Amino acid sequence: MKVFLTGSKQIGKSTLIQKFIQKNHVSCSGYITLPYFEKGERIGFYLHSLVDLDRNDILFSHGKQVIKGVFDDFGVEILEHSNSGLLILDEIGFLERDEKKYLEVLIKKIREYPNILGVCRKIDIAYIEEIKHLPDVIVYDLDYYDFEEVKKAVETLWTMKK
Question: pTM for this one?
Fold first, then answer.
């Protein structure tokens, strides 16, 4: 199962992943991106590792600035240590576009890893299009598919893989 969710902002892509994991008690590896707040205001994003590493959270954007090298360093480390369970890739977007090592490892991991549930931003970037067209990858656009139907489809695919 290699499923990626896409769609408009705030449509429920990450929520669907969280609900799926909770309902099915799924063991996970990979990462999620989370907002970084100061004084109640979102001012950036950080990578949160779902595998135990020496560090589990690294800021990769602050204000409108991308912190260079975070994906090539920490993102690659996460991917290299994600060797069990369902691989969560939440999310793949444009902020990592200049992180060549990370993108190379990411594409390789998607090609080789058997069970993936991820989010791709709905933007026209070559590596996101490449991911969407890799063998065995299924993409659900939540702008066109019903949230509950997609959740049920993911659960069915997961059950078939067991």
Answer: 0.94
